[in-house]
Design a protein that fits this description.
Helix content is 75%, strand content 1%. With 361 residues, the chain is mainly alpha-helical. The chain has a single domain, classed as Up-down Bundle (Rhopdopsin 7-helix transmembrane proteins), CATH 1.20.1070.10. Helix 3 packs parallel to helix 10, helix 5 crosses helix 6 and helix 9 runs antiparallel to helix 10.
Length: 361
């Protein structure tokens, strides 16, 4: 573990003549008001989304809808604690201003901050992919989903994701590669400047690859789910009411995927570049702080997906659009509350009828 003397050059403020180091310093003297505002907005948004999801979970006792709401609740709760913990640490760092040097005397504070950044950064991406896989199975294999993917299994998957994220966050400590203060002096993460060997690069590549794979899995599963719903609507128009809840959930998943891609892609790609090259060049150093700030917006925007993309809100928006456009854009019977039992019953009947010729043979 490096001592404060070994990091003395890294901990000092940039000198006036060192333009490269000054550029990496990236506006250290930012008002503490900004992290306080971001933390407050994130906490209020996630709290409101949790209240909506809990109310919906109590309303829908059927398995398919409840499993999706349970996954969504796990995601929003994780985002809430991310704002509470990371936000409080960030506010403390900004408020400390020049007295921040004592923080790295034993590197304990930076390790805690870095582990929180990794844990609350990887969890939303992993949970988003789990939700996409769960909904893809629920739409394409409804019988298997209703019989094999119980709420107990969903809770086990959520616990596994959280434990897996904890293990990733603890890896630098286990392998004696402590987290380090980043060039902006406002956050801690894996080694990006003092990379010594392949293990430091491995941590960066592991985090970025897991994030990019999660986004890819979400895209593929959501694409399969969307195409399946569109095909079912075209070929089985009489039962489209039974799939209205699927359209609502896939709309939310698509929004979550778009938000995650926009917010996380710059940061994940930047970390992958550092892991491959093994060093920070001037271009990467300038964009690193902006990339991590974009990533933090993911936890603020996620809850608004569940706040805004609900049937009641969408119905009102469609009504306003229809009135303004002067024509009927969508048949609102598609958005009426429907039972999941009808969808499962239709799937069971179709499966049973398709298996009749095989039994005769």
């Amino acid at each position: 573990m490096p001592t404060s003397e070994n990091n003395s050059e890294f901990l000092e403020y940039p000198k006036e003549g060192n333009l490269s180091q000054a550029a990496c310093f990236a506006e250290r003297k930012v008002s503490v008001i900004f992290p306080i505002i971001f933390m407050t907005v994130g906490i209020l948004s996630n709290s409101l989304a949790i209240a909506i999801l809990i109310k919906a979970y109590q309303r829908f006792k059927l398995k398919s809808k409840a499993s999706f709401l349970l996954c969504a609740s796990g995601l929003v709760i994780t985002d809430l604690f991310g704002h509470l913990i990371n936000g409080a640490i960030a506010v403390f760092v900004y408020a400390a201003d020049k007295d921040w040097k004592w923080i790295d005397q034993s590197n304990v504070f930076c390790n805690i901050f870095g582990m929180c950044m990794v844990f609350f950064g990887s969890c939303p991406l992993l949970l988003g992919s789990v939700m996409a896989v769960e909904r893809c199975i629920g739409v394409t294999k409804p019988i298997f989903h209703s019989t094999k993917m119980t709420l107990r299994h969903i809770k086990a998957m959520l616990a596994f994701v959280w434990i897996f994220a904890v293990m990733i966050a603890l890896m630098p400590i286990i392998f004696s590669r402590p987290y380090e203060i980043q060039p902006s002096k406002t956050w801690c993460f894996f080694r990006t400047k003092n990379i010594k060997d392949w293990l430091d690069s491995f941590f960066l590549l592991l985090f970025s690859c897991l994030g990019l794979v999660s986004l890819t899995v979400s895209f593929l599963c959501n694409a399969v789910t969307g195409l399946t719903l569109i095909r079912a609507k075209i070929h089985n128009i009489h039962h489209r009411q039974g799939r209205s809840h699927h359209f609502e959930m896939i709309t939310q998943l698509l929004a979550i995927m778009c938000v995650s891609c926009i917010c996380w892609s710059p940061f994940l790609v930047t970390m992958a570049r550092i892991g491959v090259s093994g060093q920070q060049d001037q271009e990467i150093c300038k964009t690193l702080l902006l990339a991590v700030r974009m990533a933090t917006w993911n936890q603020i925007l996620d809850p608004w997906v569940y706040i805004l993309l609900r049937k009641t809100v969408l119905r009102k928006l469609f009504q306003i659009a229809r009135e303004n456009c002067g024509m009927q854009i969508i048949n609102f019977h598609q958005w009426e509350l429907s039972s999941i039992k009808n969808s499962l019953r239709v799937a069971a009947i179709s499966d049973s009828t398709s298996s009749v010729p095989e039994t005769k043979l």
